[in-house]
Amino acid sequence: MKTRILYVGTAALGCPVERSSTIHPVVAVRPRHYMWLATLALFLAASLAAQDMPRFRWENFTTANGLPDNHVFCVLVDGNRIWAGTENGLGLYEKGTWKIFRPADGLAHRAVLSLARDKNTGDIWAGTMGGLSRISAGRIDTFTQLNSGLSNDVVYGVGVQGDFVWTATAAGASRLNTRTGEWALFNERNTPMFEIWTYSVSPADDKVYYAVWGGGVLEYDVKTEHWKDYNDPDGETELVLMKDQGLIHEITTSVSYVDKILWVATYFGASRYDGRYWHNFLQKDSGLPSDFLNQVKGVDANRAWFSTDKGLAYYDGENWAVYRPALSTHKPEMLVRDAAGKVKNVPVQTAPAHNYVLGVDFQGDDLWVATAKGLSHGIRQKNAVQTAQVLNTKVPTKIVTNKVLTNQATNKK
Fold first, then answer.
1. Are strands 216-221 and 374-380 parallel, antiparallel or unpaired?
2. Buried b or exposed e, range 203-218, using 16+ CB within 10 angstroms
3. pTM higher than 0.70 for the full model?
4. 3-state helix, strand, coil in the chain (%, to 5)
5. Residue-wise pLDDT tens digits, 12-64
6. CA dist 353 to 95, 120, 136, 148, 307, Å?
7. Fewest beta carbons within 10 Å, which of 9, 212, 298, 353?
8. Mind spelling out the 3-state secondary structure of 145-164?
9. CA angle, corner 169, sides to 167 and 175, nearest 5?
10. Which of 205, 198, 310, 302 is nearest to 255 (CA)?
11. Counting beta carbons within 10 angstroms of the beta carbon of residue 33, is it exposed (0 to 12), middle (13 to 18) or buried (19 or more)?
């Protein structure tokens, strides 16, 4: 029987490589050893994917340690301060203690649905079930339909773009010019919006995107002041007939525009749009733990975090990780899915407060996560000792090298 030469590049180990990457002859292998090497390659790929995924030690906050309410709709990182919008007030966590704002303190409503920070002034904008509030230097100003040009008092989303504050409400979009005090309203009369229930907004210097519940995605071009809509080519059907031909579904819940890439969350999967091509993600063919998404937050053009009803998911452009209390046992769980679809359960000691996740924000390498049963702080583990503490294992040794793989293959022959 003839001996064949097997070529192995870094892609075989699950690591991203450029098309020009060099491949090297490793060892002469007879056909009967292909299956063994393929199995070993899959095992190493899953192991390397698990090691590359971020790991966290989770600390959870509830009403027992100062949180205004356990149902947390949103979270916002403000330097060393953390704002949490809950069902019963806005919480500010600073220097280890909580301060609570409610209507008695000037807040528009006790249920706080969305938060945004003006990076130029440091002001905090809070969208509530009863209007929009601005927290500035200890003072709270509130805007409603009665005293301003706000479209509706139910403010699901808020975002800041320079001097403009954009809101997503139950009756269309609003934009406040903070310099002039002028309001602009956007609805079915002056945009392609055929549903006026706007659920989320993501403003940037060049574009502003809206998630319209039942109406897909709206795009506003800042330069041309032109509106454009994106819809599911399958219509409102729950069947995905054309996977990557457009937006995954009309019922959109969240948008995140970063590095000129649009990430979209829906109740039936997620989408990524680069301005030309769509790529959609479903539970059945990705690492999403569920197709029911509450929020998406992009890190950059390739990475994003997804808040679902069955856990927090992270996508690095190739591999996936899920962080949650296990659905059956409620014990801490971390699952990693590599690019080949192999899933590995990574032992962990802690997990977010609940698997129903509503939002996430970044504090350096750390995460803050809003859930239905508390607020969670994910402290990133950056070195071998910290990782071992999270996994409750010994400090890991070096990863198996290509040379070891070569020796193993040679000995097997």
1. unpaired
2. beeebbbbbbbebbbb
3. yes
4. 15, 45, 40
5. 322 332 223 333 333 444 444 545 544 444 444 445 566 689 999 999 999 99
6. 21, 33, 30, 38, 13
7. 9
8. CCCCCCCCCCEEEEEEECCE
9. 30
10. 198
11. middle
- State residue 400's pLDDT score: 31
Nearest CA among 200, 228, 195 for reference residue 214:
195
How far is the C-alpha of 235 from the C-alpha of 306, rounded, in Å?
A: 24
Three-state secondary structure of 58-117: EEEECHHHCCCCCCEEEEEEECCEEEEEECCEEEEEECCEEEEECHHHCCCCCCEEEEEE
C-alpha distances out from residue 26 to 7, 36, 48, 404, 406, Å: 6, 15, 20, 11, 6
The span from the CA of 394 to the CA of 94, in Å, is 34
Whether residue 48 contacts residue 14, with contact meaning beta carbons closer than 8 Å, is answered with: yes
Q: In the structure encoding, which two tokens stand for residue 226, read together?
A: 């032109």
How would residue 405 be classed by pLDDT, with cut points 50, 70 and 90? very low
First to last CA, the chain: 13
Half-sphere exposure of 144 (CA within 13 A, CB side): 11
Residue with tokens 């790929």: 45
The Cα–Cα gap between 114 and 130 comes to 12
pLDDT tens readout for residues 230-287:
999 876 556 566 678 899 999 999 999 999 999 999 999 999 999 999 999 999 999 9
Do 174 and 167 contact (CB within 8 A), yes or no? Answer: yes
| Residue keyed to tokens 């509706």 | 152
What is the helix (H) or strand (E) element at residue 360, kind and residue range? Answer: strand 357-363
Which residue is associated with the tokens 């203690």?
97
Distance, CA of 83 to CA of 167 (rounded, Å): 18
**Do 118 and 125 form a contact (C-beta atoms < 8 A)?**
yes
Is 293:308 a contact under the CB 8 Å cutoff? yes
250 closest CA partner among 264, 241, 262, 242: 264
Helices 34-52, 402-412: inter-axial angle, 10-degree rounding: 160
Evaluated on CA atoms 304, 305, 308, 312, the torsion sign reads: positive
